[in-house]
Structure to design on (208 residues):
């Protein structure tokens, strides 16, 4: 389906917060837009609809880097329309409706995704239940990464490697073969369709 994101910033400081919001495309390097925002009151909040940010191209995808002269917290909500309508054992209208996540304060060189799914382990693009994982380079230098996948029984089932430009990002969908390791389906044969992943990088990455 199609996703539309809104995010909320809360001022945790004792004075007005001046916030800079840099909108980086997936390719990273240079923001498409940098907005100057203001939260006038301590404990105040500001809601931002990404679809209404001036200067962003249509169908924009990427990440937002917030910086402020006060401590702030942020949470984002992505609402999906045009859901997958294939039925399964429990519902005739499955699919993701909404995802909610808090902003990352900083990145790490190692992150874990303990519960991922591809149900059933079927042809690319046909699974009823899948997961998404997004990674973002939080530095001004290129980051090389490896995502290592492990079945529930502890068996290694493959790895994906790549690199991200400065402040670049990438989303992986477990139901799409090209996003997953080579021979992933073969290596998962006879195992539960749930699995986990470990992300390692030579620079700090945010992951969700």
């Amino acid at each position: 389906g199609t996703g539309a994101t809104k995010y909320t910033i809360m001022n945790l400081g004792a004075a007005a917060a001046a916030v800079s919001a840099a909108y980086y495309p997936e390719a990273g390097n240079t923001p498409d837009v940098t907005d100057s925002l203001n939260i006038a009151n301590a404990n105040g909040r500001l809601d931002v609809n990404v679809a209404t940010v001036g200067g962003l191209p249509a169908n924009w995808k990427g990440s937002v880097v917030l910086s402020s002269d006060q401590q702030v917290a942020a949470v984002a909500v992505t609402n999906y329309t045009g859901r997958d309508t294939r039925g399964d054992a429990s519902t005739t209208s499955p699919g993701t409706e909404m995802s909610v996540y808090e902003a990352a304060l900083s990145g790490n060189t190692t992150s874990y995704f303990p519960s991922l799914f591809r149900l059933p382990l079927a042809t690319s693009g046909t699974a009823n239940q899948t997961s998404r994982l997004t990674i973002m380079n939080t530095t001004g230098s290129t980051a090389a990464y490896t995502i290592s996948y492990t079945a529930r029984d502890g068996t290694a089932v493959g790895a994906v490697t790549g690199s991200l430009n400065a402040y670049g990002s990438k989303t992986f969908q477990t139901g799409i073969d090209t996003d997953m390791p080579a021979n992933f389906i073969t290596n998962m044969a006879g195992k539960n369709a749930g699995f986990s992943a470990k992300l390692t990088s030579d620079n700090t990455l945010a992951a969700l």
Summary: The two ends are 19 Å apart (CA to CA). The CA atoms of residues 134 and 171 lie 4 Å apart. DSSP finds one helix and 14 strands in the chain.
